[in-house]
Design goal:
The chain is about 40% helix and about 15% strand. The protein contains 5 helices and 6 strands; from the N terminus they run βαβαβαβαββα. Strands 1, 2, 3, 4, 5 and 6 form a 6-stranded parallel sheet that branches. With about 190 residues, it is α/β, with parallel strands linked by helices. Helix 1 crosses helix 5.
Length: about 190
């Protein structure tokens, strides 16, 4: 049996972002059980249905849709921009959800982690992402919720440095792994 594939989508494009540090830490935890990879979303253009025809479709859309389809599960790690998810994540959700009868996200288990230097830990971004995910038929993990506030005190130059955050992320990763395995077993995948 092939290893279960998990794609990580990071909502921050900044090279040294807090979200990327948390995502890398989660990748390392999940890599013990799954084939985990980061999915490139920075070059996606805004969805325009006029371009969604043979001969007009950007190559990047085709590549991205196939990559999302090949995944067994998805994990979003994101900051919050203006009480919502960053544009780069919204573009990713839109591009892979089209055409509507071939939604690449359909039926995948998923989870979201909000990361912020502020106190509310990306709650707005997480809630908006969850709202979109429900429309796309992504089965999002309900508990534990992960809204990590005050992140700047919990990371160093390379990774997550706070022991309490490491412990929480380990618990989160374990619960996500259980959700993914349970979902895939029950769906016959």
């Amino acid at each position: 049996m092939n290893k279960i594939t998990v794609g990580i989508f990071v909502g921050s494009l900044r090279r040294d972002s807090f979200s990327k540090k948390v995502a890398k830490y989660l990748r390392d935890l999940l890599a013990e059980q799954f084939d985990v990879s980061f999915v490139e979303i920075s070059s996606l253009t805004i969805y325009n249905e006029d371009l969604d025809t043979e001969g007009m479709m950007p190559d990047e859309w085709r590549r991205f849709r196939e990559e999302v389809k090949s995944l067994d599960a998805v994990l979003f790690v994101t900051p919050e921009y203006n009480r919502s998810m960053p544009e780069v994540l919204k573009k990713a959700l839109d591009v892979a959800s089209r055409p509507k009868n071939d939604n690449a996200w359909n039926g995948k288990p998923g989870a979201v982690v909000g990361v912020s230097p502020g106190n509310i830990g990306g709650f707005g971004a997480g809630q908006h992402l969850r709202q979109a995910a429900s429309c796309l038929n992504i089965f999002m993990m309900q508990q534990p919720e992960a809204y990590i506030g005050g992140i700047s005190a919990s990371v160093n130059d390379d990774s997550v440095s706070s022991e309490s955050l490491q412990s929480f992320l380990k618990h989160f990763a374990d619960e996500f792994a259980k959700l993914v395995k349970d979902h895939l077993c029950s769906s016959g995948a």
